Amino acid sequence: MNLASAPGSAATTFGVAGVQMNVSAFESNVERMGNYLRHIRTRFPWVRMVLFSELAALGPKHDKAEPLPGPTEARLAELARETGLWLIPGSLFERAQGPAGPVVYNTTPVINPQGEVVTRFRKLFPFRPYERDVAGGTGFCVFDVPGAGRFGVSICYDMWFPETTRTLAAMGAEVILHPTMTDTIDRDVELAIARASAVTNQLYFFDVNGVGDGGVGRSIICDPSGYVLHQADGGAEIMAIDVDFARVRRERERGLRSNLGQPLKSFRDRDCDFDVYRKDAGAYPYLQTLGPLVKPD
């Protein structure tokens, strides 16, 4: 982590805009994303980073998967360079070569204002058994913005597994960028998970959903104390928020809501170990009684 993002550095704020955009499953949405970026650059000149929803660029069809780097990612990089913004364009289906042959990942590129892809994150938990043709990634993703702080990336179903956000927080993430594509009736549950993820890890949580073919909307942005900074409705919306990195660091030092719980320190200083995370089947045999991970009849 660079000095500008280290705890105790000078107070900094950093503008992040989530875009709850109408996503089409049948045609490219990339130029619409470009129009949003240009509009944000003019309307909210203090914004430095823009986050779109999961699979916003090309929609949710696997047959649109591309190798990365590829043509769609290159076009998104051009738009970041044109507008001078950090761009997290939701995600793309990535066609890649796995250990046993070709696979498809659900992948988020992180693009800097110079149009460079600084890192990519592959979704850890595809929505199985429904998203059965997508492979799960194995790596966690954090990146630093010079002069601001450290960001972590997760995608949609990843947040249902608190280990994911906890790992990113332990890696120093102060903001979680979480594109999602939820078009099901459990969106209300995800709102609770997003808020809990923010407060238990003492970080900002941007959970940005799409609309139309891209989801039911209701994006949510929460702060390190678990307060809801904004919750969208079901239409297209730009959600521009100033992230206060000094506040994250202060609350992690003193406790959330000024001087209450210090969950990250308590997790660090715990007396127990969590054997439940061992992958061998003998550790917790109850889990083996649940049956296979398949669609219900």
Summarize the structure.
This protein is α/β, with parallel strands linked by helices and 297 residues long. The protein is built from six helices and 15 strands.
Strand and helix layout:
Layout: E1 13-20, E2 22-23, H1 30-43, E3 47-51, H2 71-83, E4 86-88, E5 92-98, E6 101-111, E7 117-122, E8 141-145, E9 149-153, H3 162-170, E10 175-179, H4 187-201, E11 204-208, E12 211-212, E13 220-222, E14 228-231, E15 237-244, H5 245-254, H6 263-268
Parallel strand pairs: 1-3, 2-12, 3-4, 9-10, 10-11
Antiparallel strand pairs: 1-15, 5-6, 6-7, 8-9, 11-13, 13-14
Q: What does this protein look like?
A:
By secondary structure, the protein is α/β, with parallel strands linked by helices. It is 23% helix and 27% strand. It has 6 helices and 15 strands. The protein has helices spanning 30-43, 71-83, 162-170, 187-201, 245-254, 263-268; strands at 13-20, 22-23, 47-51, 86-88, 92-98, 101-111, 117-122, 141-145, 149-153, 175-179, 204-208, 211-212, 220-222, 228-231, 237-244. The strands form 4 sheets. Strands 8-9-10-11-13-14 form a 6-stranded mixed beta sheet, with helices on one face. The protein has a 4-stranded mixed beta sheet with strand order 4-3-1-15. Strand 5 and strand 6 form a beta hairpin. Helix 1 (30-43) packs parallel to helix 2. The longest helix is centred in the middle third of the chain and has 15 residues, at 187-201. It is globular, with a radius of gyration of 19 Å.
